[in-house]
Design goal:
The complex is a heterodimer. By secondary structure, chain A is α+β, with helices and mostly antiparallel strands. Chain A is 37% helix and 21% strand. The two termini of chain A are 38 Å apart. Classes of the chains: A alpha+beta, B alpha+beta.
């Protein structure tokens, strides 16, 4: 390590503490010497250790600290001193001493005991009370401190192993008294200079004046000129932050929307609460179709029935029953008009396509898509959601053929999944004929089903558009692409409320 | 989507050709089916086409394979001998389960494998195509135990017989209450007080339709070589089709078929009626939809591969008796396209120019989300389904117009969400152990019931949870948002039960309340078990969208 660089990287706290470390090793000592706060010294030591300038070793140490009465003595004077002072001029009874010194009876008794032990007072009876008189020995203490007094004036804490003989005597006496001192064993960290630290001190490069931060004031005055700034430890780990960002799946839906728009598709919309009519009947799914079981959809309690354009309902009813003028035989059953008004939570995005086909602003030629929430009556688990997003749409144009449908699927394979290898196979969807399924070979996932498409049946198109025209309907199953990219194996993660996951979800 | 299992060896014997796994995979695409697995000799396949139940059997798949590989193309052969066996239908049967089709098949001994296949087809047809036996159910019986004529009669609940796999007699009432199949399907007969049974000339009950056969006369065993078949239901078309599907399967297996005469009060019908049907499709219609030139010979070849046929003189496409999925010429055109081979069709690009757009509202929605993200809020995306406990009770407010699901599966997801705030608070309650500040927002749809109308609203809600979260913070955010969206707005003090009184405002736009801002009431925080102050806002963006679209 370059000594020059190292010295310039020292924080002002480190700079303050470092010169003392050759003599003083503990935090307490360093606090005393540097006049810094505890935490500041500790931080400085930690940083110095990180830079390998010092090493910190933990040691068990027994030390003495002042207890509550000890602090009181330091402030107000030692009890024996008060008693000696009171007896300076004349002999007094304990009651009189109490009155004069303000000490408690207990404190006076303890003090007398202590003074008697080095023959500093004489005690004699007077009535019910005791009368005290200072001996010659006691008078010496008028201008000489008791060893306890001397000890209590020292600065605490005091390390037991550093005690001198006389101090040991004082400690022995004081520890018998109530709450004057406390002896405790703690772990103390001791700092010693490493070879690098010694070299640094020897280099005398600690005295350079360094700026810690750029301030607006120094910029105004130009005071930074010719000066240097402290070098930071840029390798240090910094605390984590979390920025605001899009939810990963919603972001994926945004991208899909933009992609489809870029391919010339226009977005469609529709309500969440749909009628049986737009959700299924308009799609020429017979009311007795197995996928239309009441147990497969969420029907709502209120309002139970939708308001519909009855002229369109009439056309759809006719085509279900007899095929109308479409050249179809129809489904040959009695279409239930009341049932078609029943309301449910949309089960398929195709409902949006049906609405668009029937709308006045349908563009021909046109390409459309919808990314909309759909609902199925499923138990939610790792592979099922009762609420999910479907991507569907259609292409409407005169003279479209099955070959165009294939061409469109090929485009989706490349543009949506980035796959050039694909397979188109016969498929089945209740409202298209012919129908096709699209398989693509994904770089990492292998062959996957990406979606399907078909040509809407004339029985669907004629009542809604008013004429027969080829409409290629398509749907994409792209959730698995997003899930693969984000390494998601549980479909519920699409709607996860795990903040940690969301904060840490990768964007790319 | 029905899934069936069958023996590979059996399939290969029926087709007359060996199949590798790749061959199978390839072939199944013609049947719109997927190979789900091969375990030893056992093949599992998923059938996508719910309108072609004839393919839900090994016999049906083998029949198609023979066409695809040119072993036997065109309409499959079938022959039914007329017999004098009669089925006499009760005069009141039209009220309960009106239709029946029956026939006899003999000449082959039942093997274990074949019996399994028959039962599988019977179940798949009755469950999938027959709406859990309501529309269609099927019975098969050892014919040698039955004396014709058989009556399809209505009887009362006291009539008794021994149900399949039991040793003692049960009355019909007992069967419906106690027998496992009785309990499973009793709902079909629930509206009636008379019950449909098949009873032979010796007064033996053969079965209670659509519930269970009799142990005495309705149990087929390996080695039996005469089968009586019945199919009952509510849709004549479906009943006849099911009989044809079975008849063709048994014929393919080498059985000799003889018909029954079903005597209704007003008509007599011979079943099975195995005649073909046809639809007229001009050559140009094929070409226009498929997108390639097709000679009539090519059309014929493609259709014959798919076990149909074509007469170029009359332009008629003929379908076999077991196909009932033909309503329109597009159905015939698809057969040609599949027969032609999807892989042989060259994809053509879409050439018309159309401009792409995302919904205009996305402009506002994306701006809001962008601003919130700029303010360091994490976006949340939640389910749209919720429950009233969370939306109202925990929030200390009353229901303000909820779309409730009639047919919900779990209380947790029993309504459509009406606001976002409770959902986001619930989220915070699950993330108490993560670093604060927690700043989250969601932009999404909520659905409200307002009188008879249902309204979808685009909402935006943002929450801050940290030791210093307060009203000011949320108000600053809303001020910033609405001014960046260039929306004129005002605010007015409002006491909302979810917030601390005196620390909540309504936000107005064009005189309408579009949302609120406030400091969450500790009572609400307690309901969610939250130990951190939370300030929040929620805005209905519909007004803003309307203004910006205008």
């Amino acid at each position: 390590m370059d000594i020059d660089k190292l010295s310039k990287s020292l924080h002002p706290l480190e700079r303050k503490v470092l010169p003392f470390i050759s003599k003083h090793t503990t935090v307490d000592e360093l606090v005393k010497e540097t006049k810094l706060k505890d935490v500041e010294v500790m931080r400085a030591l930690q940083w110095l250790e990180n830079k390998e300038i010092i090493s910190l070793v933990s040691e068990k140490v027994t030390r003495i600290i002042l207890d509550s009465n000890g602090s009181k003595c330091r402030k107000e004077g030692f009890p024996e001193r008060k008693v000696i002072d009171a007896l300076k001029d004349k002999e007094l009874t304990i009651k009189e001493i109490e009155k004069k010194t303000g000490l408690s009876n207990e404190e006076i008794n303890v003090s007398i005991g202590a003074l008697k032990s080095h023959a500093s007072v004489d005690v004699k009876k007077e009535g019910n009370d005791l009368k005290l008189k200072l001996t010659e020995q006691g008078k010496k203490f008028f201008d000489k401190k008791l060893i306890e007094e001397v000890f209590l004036e020292k600065s605490f804490p005091i390390i037991v192993s550093d005690l001198k003989d006389l101090e040991k005597l004082a400690v022995d006496k004081l520890k018998k008294r109530k709450k004057i001192i406390k002896i405790e064993t703690i772990n103390i960290r001791k700092a010693t200079l490493t070879d690098l630290g010694k070299e640094l001190i020897k280099s005398k490069k600690l005295d350079i004046e360094l700026f810690d931060a750029v301030t607006s004031d120094m910029l105004r005055k130009g005071s930074w000129k010719g000066k240097e700034f402290r070098r930071f430890d840029v390798a240090i780990n910094v605390p984590k932050i979390y920025g605001g960002k899009k939810q990963w799946y919603r972001r994926f839906l945004d991208q899909t929307r933009d992609k489809l728009a870029s391919l010339g598709f226009e977005e469609m919309k529709g309500p969440i609460v749909e009628s049986d009519f737009w959700n299924m009947d308009a799609l020429f799914m017979p009311q007795f179709h197995s996928a239309r079981d009441i147990h497969d959809a969420f029907y709502i309690s209120e309002p139970k029935y939708a308001e519909l354009d009855e002229s369109v309902v009439e056309k759809v009813k006719e085509v279900h029953e007899t095929g109308g003028k479409t050249g179809s035989s129809g489904w040959k059953y009695d279409f239930d008009v009341k049932r078609t008004h029943q309301q449910l939570l949309r089960t398929q995005t195709t409902a949006c396509s049906a609405r668009k086909l029937a709308s006045k602003n349908l563009k021909i030629p046109g390409k459309y898509f919808a990314i909309a929430p759909c609902f199925r009556r499923d138990v939610v688990d790792a592979t099922h959601l009762n609420n999910f997003f479907q991507v569907e749409g259609f292409v409407i144009e005169e003279n479209l053929t099955l070959k165009h449908l294939f061409g469109m699927l090929k485009m989706f394979a490349k543009e949506v999944a980035g796959c050039t290898e694909y397979r188109i196979m016969p498929g089945y969807f209740p409202f298209t004929e012919p129908s096709a399924s699209l398989l693509v070979k994904h770089k990492e996932m292998g062959w996957i089903e990406l979606g399907g498409a078909g040509i809407f049946r004339p029985e669907l198109v004629v009542p809604l558009v008013g004429k027969n025209i080829t409409v290629i309907a398509w749907g994409l199953g792209i959730d698995r692409l997003a899930m693969f990219k984000h390494d998601v194996h549980d479909i519920r993660t699409v709607f996860t409320h795990d903040l940690k996951y969301l904060r840490e979800a990768k964007l790319l | 989507m029905p899934t069936i299992t069958f023996s590979k060896k059996d399939f290969e014997n029926l087709v007359g050709k060996k199949f590798s796994e790749k061959d199978l995979d390839q072939f199944l695409t013609y049947a719109k089916a997927e190979l789900d697995g091969i375990a030893g000799d056992e093949i599992t396949a998923g059938l996508d086409d719910t309108n072609q139940p004839a393919l839900w059997s090994v016999e049906g798949l083998a029949r198609l394979a023979k066409g695809v590989y040119g072993i036997d193309a065109g309409i499959p052969k079938i022959e039914v001998h007329k017999s004098k066996d009669q089925i006499l239908v009760d005069k009141d049967m039209h009220k309960v389960r009106p239709f029946i089709a029956c026939f006899n098949a003999k000449g082959k001994k039942l093997t274990d494998n074949f019996l399994k296949q028959i039962i599988q087809l019977q179940e798949k047809l009755a469950e999938g195509f027959g709406r859990h036996r309501k529309k269609l159910s099927i019975g098969i019986y050892p014919a040698h135990k039955i004396k014709f004529p058989v009556s399809y009669a209505l009887v009362d609940e006291k009539v008794s017989f021994i149900p399949l796999e039991y040793k003692t007699e049960f009355t019909i009432a007992e069967i419906l209450k106690e027998h496992p199949k009785g309990k499973e399907y009793a709902w079909i007969l629930e509206p009636f007080d008379k019950y449909p049974v098949l009873r032979d000339a010796a007064n033996q009950i053969l079965s209670l339709a659509p519930i269970i056969n009799s142990e005495t006369t309705g149990k087929l065993e390996i080695g039996d070589d005469e089968i009586f078949f019945d199919c009952t239901g509510t849709d004549e078309h479906v009943v006849l089709l099911a009989a044809n599907i079975f008849a063709q399967a048994l014929y393919d297996r080498g059985f000799t078929l003889s018909s029954c005469e079903v005597v209704y009060p007003d008509k007599k019908v011979f079943t099975p009626d195995v005649k073909t049907h046809s639809i007229e499709v001009a050559q140009v219609d094929f070409e226009n939809l498929v997108g390639v030139e097709l000679s009539s010979a090519k059309i014929k070849e493609c259709l014959r591969k798919m076990r149909c046929d074509y007469d170029s003189k009359t332009s008629k496409v003929t379908f076999p008796c077991f196909r009932a999925d033909v309503m329109h010429k597009v159905d015939a055109i698809e057969e040609v396209a599949i027969g032609f081979g999807y892989s042989a069709l060259e994809p053509a690009s879409l050439t018309s120019y159309t401009a792409g757009y995302i919904l205009p509202k996305e402009k506002v929605l994306r701006a809001c989300r962008e601003l919130m993200i700029g303010l360091d809020f994490q976006e949340i995306f939640s389910m749209l389904l919720s429950n009233k406990e969370l939306l109202y009770k925990k929030m200390n407010v009353k229901d303000f117009g909820t779309i409730e699901i009639d047919t919900y599966l779990s209380e947790t997801y029993s309504v459509v969400r009406t606001w976002l705030l409770p959902i986001l608070l619930d989220m915070l309650s699950h993330n108490k152990h993560y670093d604060y500040p927690q700043k989250i927002f969601e932009q999404g749809l909520v659905t409200l019931k307002k009188d008879a109308a249902v309204i979808d609203e685009e909402h935006l809600a943002g929450l801050s949870a940290h030791p210093k979260a307060d009203f000011t913070e949320s108000k600053q955010i809303v001020d910033y948002l609405l001014s960046m969206l260039d929306v004129e707005y005002s605010m007015k003090e409002f006491d909302h039960d979810s917030f601390i009184p005196g620390r909540c405002v309504h936000v107005f736009c064009k005189g309408k309340v579009i949302g609120f801002i406030g400091e969450l009431n500790p009572k609400v925080l307690e309901n969610f078990g939250l130990l951190m102050p939370v300030c929040a806002f929620e805005l209905n963006l519909n007004e803003v969208i309307k203004e910006k679209e205008a």
